[in-house]
Amino acid sequence: MATLHISTDKTALDVLLIHQFLSERSTWAIGIPLPVMERAIDNSLCFGAYLEGKQVAFARVTTDCATFAYLADVFVVEHWRGQGICKVLLEAVLEHPDLQGLRRFMLATSDAHELYARYGFTPPSRPAALMERYLPNIYAN
């Protein structure tokens, strides 16, 4: 495999690839409109993974860069899965200087618990303290 490059440069992101993946192939953001995705990117710390200049993976972190972060929209393009790209991407996210010393770093996953557990993520220690407003079909309207 060619050298994998991880970058937080938003100008390098392939926004159309990100939108296509999330809106058509993800399990969590089906139908997300492009302007919503663009706004999410604009207001987040984003990580692109690139092979030979082509984006092959993405992760987005919503954070105050002091106490809290939420990891979202993590994906590797199907063709490139199984080659350790997600692990390198997650390591870059967790090592980013703006994400050090946080009190809470959260994520939601339906099928990658084992992967995230390798990086210290666990079920909430106090699930009764967590609440959410969840609108799973918001993009269908």
Automatic annotation (TrEMBL):
Residues 4-136 form the N-acetyltransferase domain. It comes from the Bacteria. It holds the Pfam family Acetyltransf_7. This is GNAT family N-acetyltransferase. The keyword Lipid biosynthesis does not apply. CDD domains: NAT_SF. InterPro entries: Acetyltransferase_Butenolide, Acyl_CoA_acyltransferase, GNAT_dom. One of its GO terms (molecular function) is acyltransferase activity, transferring groups other than amino-acyl groups. Keywords: Transferase. It comes from Duganella flavida. The keyword Phosphoprotein does not apply.
